[in-house]
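Figure S7 source data.
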Amino acid sequence: MYFLTYMNILIILLRVILMDFKHKSTILITCAKGLVPYLKNEVERLSFCVDSCHATGVTITASLHDALTLNLFLRTAYNVLYLLRKFSAATPEELYREVSCIPWEDIIDPDEYISVVSQTDTPAIRNSVFASQTVKDSIVDYLCKKHGKRPNSGPSRSNIVINLYWKENRCWLYLNTSGQKLSDRNYRKNPFIAPMQETLAAGILLASGYDGSQAFINPMCGSGTLAIEAALIALNRPPAGVRINFGFMHLKGFDKQAWHTIRRTAQKLSKKTLIAPIVASDIDAKAIEAARKNAMTAGVEQLIQFHVCDFIQTPFTSQKGVIILNPEYGIRMGEDRELEATYQRIGDFFKQKCAGFNAFIFTANMNLAKKVGLKTSQRLQFFNAQIECRLLKYEMYQGSKRIR
Ligand SMILES: C[S@@+](CC[C@H](N)C(=O)[O-])C[C@H]1O[C@@H](n2cnc3c(N)ncnc32)[C@H](O)[C@@H]1O
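Tokens for the predicted S-adenosylmethionine complex:
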């Protein structure tokens, strides 16, 4: 009898602790391969202590309230995942049982829509979709018993998102506080050919040393991702400033007022004008039209100088700084020969016009990169989806230092 009462008190206490937005747990912040050093830097600059680094993310110990800040400010992160429970499961039945031990009625309203994303590496299951289905069934059955109502579920990540990692017989179940990936900033309504992911563009800029105090020149800008992300960095504006939906907004206990306070603080810290120019150009007028519209949605169109021209004609400003080109890298046979000439011309352009700049090429084709004919001072590895890429740095000294 006494034991039962003690257990009940413990369960109630656990519940209160779980749904307290101030309660700390492990937070896994995921990112694309290659972006971890920049993500770690960003997390530390927000005054969090990084507990561990992995190939595609970092972990910290923080609260759901902290997750609001992380979602708003991190430029290179994909998802901010709050650990709900870590447990062992050797079969789908055990997974179902363990998931139903969480007091879901404190976390999810039965009117919400639920989506489960799984990554599995276990002999218990062949298909990660089946693991997602099992987790979803367990949550939905639990809530149905409590409320007599089945929440809707499906693949859309627009409301409640749960992430499961199942390795051998160990499981980690997370609340995905981002919902949709943070690379989806909500400003790129007009993608042009082969647009770069926004998180990758931010990572490239951070790797280049760009901080807004120097000029940024972006020939071959396509849909303008690099130029827009540069403007957001220069203005100290949060990358998710124009995003209106996050996973945490659908959790029970979400404090709207606290969110508005964090956003207002971010607004106060951001600048209205640039101290150094940002120039973006492309040979295709349709690319510049798309880039302008995207910049307008991001609220930075007036601050970027757009030009339709061959990259060689890109107008320079007197201020020196960073120049980044992301030329096509050709995956079809025969394309390389056409592109060889372009890469050769980029080398000439750097030599003739870019003295005093830190010049960069972002490409996945190292054979084409050789055609540039200049010595790189740094080669950083990134991944554009599954494609391995390099950010090649060329220091274009002014005056007596040799360029080659
Ligand atoms: C790989 S895309 C750049 C994608 C861009 N980073 C983005 O996020 O959308 C390459 C761009 O180079 C442009 N381009 C190709 N040849 C060019 C040239 N000779 N001068 C200027 N732009 C050129 C293309 O029109 C295309 O928009």
